[in-house]
Automatic annotation (TrEMBL):
Record-given protein name: Undecaprenyl-diphosphatase
Family, per entry: Belongs to the UppP family.
Keywords on record: Antibiotic resistance, Cell membrane, Cell shape, Cell wall biogenesis/degradation, Hydrolase, Membrane, Peptidoglycan synthesis, Transmembrane, Transmembrane helix
Pfam families: BacA (PF02673)
Primary subcellular site in the record, as a coarse category: membrane
Transmembrane segments: 47-65, 93-111, 123-139, 191-208, 220-238, 250-267
GO terms for cellular component: plasma membrane
Source organism of this protein record: Chryseomicrobium excrementi
GO biological process: cell wall organization; peptidoglycan biosynthetic process; regulation of cell shape; response to antibiotic
Protein topology in the membrane: Multi-pass membrane protein
Length: 268
């Protein structure tokens, strides 16, 4: 019975992390809330769970944006052989992704443990969710004009700084970057694509840095189940979120973040 409960716990944690990672409600924040409310605690003696959950979400993003990635890679190489408007646009887009990766990369390497220890409380998560909800409310109806070829290095840097803020548990990475991107005048489609392609280098970096900590041991089966559920729910959630964005229904996430944030402040 105890083994079954362990499996169920990791299935729930994997599904929860997978579903909340792509949408603007903070996966890290919901894991904190779930652990406090339901006692769903994971092992803390290694980073295996974190690595596998990140890898699962990364695979989902790679699968969904595979055509964009192939085009960007192909045109970036072609840019050095013969410059055209299309190859220049895609090469610049890749450069801007690199620029946007720098803030969170540096801050994460230097201060991630400090940020996690200082801000990892249910009240901090609740406040962060409220702030996320308010931010989403203000950009919910924006119809930007900037497309891929209209971005600047300043746009990339600001979105990158927003991603760095999302190191605080409760601040959604996708929410912070999409709010920043749309606030800068990007079209919804461009903001969404830039946000999730920006997830790739950050996720790969995290996996590479913490890979030496990977230790499945006797937890290989629970972790494997969590990985599969995280991948499936990440894929579904991202597809669903893309549809929500296309219909201009970000208000749903505003309401959710405010209800959960204020609710947890009152009950916590």
């Amino acid at each position: 019975m105890e083994e079954l409960l362990v499996l169920l716990k990791y299935i729930v944690l994997g599904a929860l992390q997978g579903f909340t990672e792509p949408i603007p409600i903070s996966s890290s924040g919901h894991l904190v809330i779930a652990q406090e409310l339901f006692g769903l605690e994971m092992r803390t003696d290694d980073f295996t769970f974190e690595i596998l959950m990140n890898f699962a979400s990364l695979l989902a993003v790679l699968l969904i944006y595979r055509k964009d990635l192939m085009r960007l890679a192909s045109n970036s190489v072609a840019y050095f052989k013969g410059k055209t408007d299309e190859t220049r646009r895609d090469f610049q887009f890749v450069v801007y992704l690199v620029i946007a990766t720098i803030p969170a990369g540096i801050i994460g390497l230097l201060f991630e443990d400090t940020i996690a220890s200082v801000f990892k409380s249910s009240k901090t998560v609740a406040v962060a969710l409220i702030v996320t909800g308010v931010a989403l409310f203000f950009i919910r109806n924006l119809k930007g004009r900037k497309q891929d070829g209209d971005l600047t290095w300043k746009d990339a840097l600001i979105v990158g700084l927003a991603q760095a803020v999302a190191l605080i548990p409760g601040v959604s990475r996708s929410g912070a970057t999409i709010v920043a991107a749309m606030g800068l005048g990007m079209k919804q489609e461009t903001a969404l694509r830039f946000s999730f392609l920006l997830f790739i280098p950050i996720s790969v970096g995290l996996i590479l840095v913490k890979l030496p900590e990977l230790a499945l041991g006797d937890m290989w089966f629970p972790y494997s189940l969590a990985f599969l559920f995280s991948f499936g729910f990440s894929y579904f959630a991202l597809k669903w979120f893309m549809n929500i964005m296309a219909k201009g229904n970000l208000i749903y996430f505003t309401i959710y973040c405010l209800v959960v944030g204020f609710g947890f402040l009152l009950l916590g």
